[in-house]
Amino acid sequence: MNSAFPAVTRLSGCAAALPLPHVDTDQIMPKQFLKGIDRQGLAQGFLHDMRFDGSGQMRPDFVLNQAPWSEAHFLVTGPNFGCGSSREHAVWGLRELGIRCVLGTSFGGIFSDNCMRNGVPALVLPAFEVDRLMALAQDPQRCSLTLDLPTQSLYTAGDGQTLHFDIDPLHKEMLLRGLDAVGMSLTHAQAIRDFETRYLAATPWVLPPQANPPQEN
Predict the structure, then answer these.
(1) Fewer Cβ within 10 Å of end Cβ, the chain: N or C?
(2) 83: exposed, middle or buried (Cβ count in 10 Å: 0-12, 13-18, 19+)
């Protein structure tokens, strides 16, 4: 079975800090970038108005425009990140820019689900752990993180600590196998076919729609 995205097992890289609360999906991916259903150009759209000024020039004081955070794989966020409208483009743009994991105390529900379905762990952590990660992420010498999804752990080289996190077992399996919701459903394809066979055998008066086409007068 083809994967919808690269499987997530172990990930290492720089973490960037974005402590702002209630960053909604309109800010994460402004409406002018919602014209298509492919990923082209969406890296430019991610947090566009924070990263660029009105003339399209990069804002040098914004964290994702600065080294080493311009190459960040992790984003440590303020509370309720991704609230607002359902906008899967927000996650697509995040991935296209190179962010592979978001960490915070809370996320918008639909945004969090979209992350998990697109290969981006959205990990909810205790506030004191997020505060610690936020401080490390703001230090260019200590901003390195390593995610190990099978063991559900995050290692911070900057202070030598390892934290363990909870994740929904279904979301974990999807990430480990690189499967979206459709892909996960198809892993049960034979069980679905077996159920159909048993059901139709027990209720022969119920015919599949294609077996009983409408009659022309």
Answers:
(1) C
(2) buried
What is the model's pTM? 0.85
Using the predicted structure, report yes or no on whether residue 176 has a pLDDT greater than 90: yes
State the chain's mean pLDDT as an integer.
90
Residue 212 has pLDDT above 70, yes or no: no
pLDDT at 168 over 90: yes
Q: What is the 3-state secondary structure (H, E, C) of the chain?
A: CCCCCCCCCEEEEEEEEECCCCCEHHHHCCHHHCCCCCCCCHHHHCCHHHHECCCCCECCCCHHHCCCHHHCCEEEECCCECECCCCHHHHHHHHHHCCCEEEECCECHHHHHHHHHCCCCEEECCHHHHHHHHHHHCCCCCCEEEEECCCCEEEECCCCEEEECCCCHHHHHHHHHCCCHHHHHHCCHHHHHHHHHHHHHHCCCCCCHHHCCCCCC
- Residue 82 phi, psi (nearest 5): 85, 20
- pLDDT for 39 equals 74
Structure tokens at 164: 């363990």
Find where tokens 């009105």 sit.
54
Question: Domains plus CATH for the chain?
Answer: 10-179 (3.20.19.10)
Question: Above 90 in pLDDT, residue 206?
Answer: no
Strand partners, 101: 74
The yes-or-no verdict on residue 71 having pLDDT over 80 is: yes
